[in-house]
Amino acid sequence: MTSPTLTLVRGDITRQRVDAIVNAANSSLLGGGGVDGAIHRRGGPAILQECRALRASRYGKGLPTGQAVATTAGELDARWVIHTVGPVHSRTEDRSHLLASCYRESLRVADELGARTVAFPAISTGVYRWPMDDAARIAVETVRRTGTAVEEVRFVLFDDMAYRAFAARVG
Ligand code: ADP
Question: Which CATH class is domain 5-170?
């Protein structure tokens, strides 16, 4: 176990060719907007079908914030989608540990699967309103600190602001 190589791409996570694509899901696992919507649109119905089965078998109350679970990647150019639920940002409560947990748990699931290349979006920075600079700090620090057999962690940033925030942290 060593530290994975961190790479940055500006673009659409659904276009990445990697072993696993991480989805910024919501706890229902039944789809949403942003990354989630894009993954289900491009990946096709097989992903939602497996998400429904996971809801029925293991996550009747939804996937808890900070946890991660894998499904097929359907028609995406990947083997798996790893769904993780980011925390909604709060001004009154520090939920950083939950955001860090998303990265750690996703890498743990990736290791269980044997994934070597994993693409992450900037979890929680869309609808869940986490400030981009802080989200980038937590993402990069957590991935660097996590022991994993994953060789490449690719952060896929949707716009220039996100790309610059991650680039400043990766150095
Ligand atoms: P969350 O609910 O965790 O905030 P969102 O999907 O709303 O998740 O947004 C997370 C981040 O992903 C945002 O910075 C958003 O701009 C970005 N994003 C949205 N669509 C894509 C995409 N297709 N590929 C990569 N990043 C995306």
Answer: alpha beta
Q: Looking at ligand 1, which atom is closest to the CA of residue 39?
A: 23
Could you identify the atom of ligand 1 that is nearest to the CA of residue 12?
A: 24
Q: Is the pTM of this model over 0.90?
A: yes
Strand-pair partners of 120: 155
C-beta of residue 149 within 8 angstroms of C-beta of residue 49 = no
Assess contact for 123 and 158: CB atoms under 8 A: no
Q: Which pLDDT band, with edges at 50, 70 and 90, does 2 fall under?
A: confident
Asked if the interface predicted TM-score (ipTM) of this complex is over 0.90, the answer is yes
Domain ranges of the chain: 5-170
Q: Is the separation of the CB atoms in 77 and 119 below 8 Å?
A: no
Instruction: Tell me the residue type at 163.
Output: Y
3-state secondary structure of 60: coil
